[in-house]
Design a protein that fits this description.
By secondary structure, the chain is mostly helical. The chain is 45% helix and 0% strand.
Length: 86
């Protein structure tokens, strides 16, 4: 049987990445797809940084609020829909 989906569709459906605070998630999104990245923090461990949201916000620059919502919540909830609270 032939694979009917493009590799990019396969990746978006089956993979997700949680960048470190020192990585430029904004650049990752620009060069690939906003569906691939999820917010995470290693708080209170040092590799989580002192201000992970501030650092991600800087990296996201002038990206839209919908991309920010995807990054901070919706991409996670797409993978774990039962985690949504009303």
């Amino acid at each position: 049987s032939a694979i009917s989906r493009k590799p990019s569709e396969q990746i978006i459906e089956q993979m997700a990445f949680t960048p470190f605070v020192f990585e430029n998630v904004g650049q990752f999104i620009e060069q690939s797809c906003p569906d691939l990245y999820l917010f995470s923090s290693d708080y209170p461990h040092v590799e989580g940084g002192k201000d992970p949201i501030g650092r991600f916000e800087t990296s996201l620059g002038d990206m839209s609020s919908s991309i920010r919502t995807q990054f901070y919540t919706e991409n996670f909830l797409r993978l774990f829909p039962h985690a949504r609270v009303s």
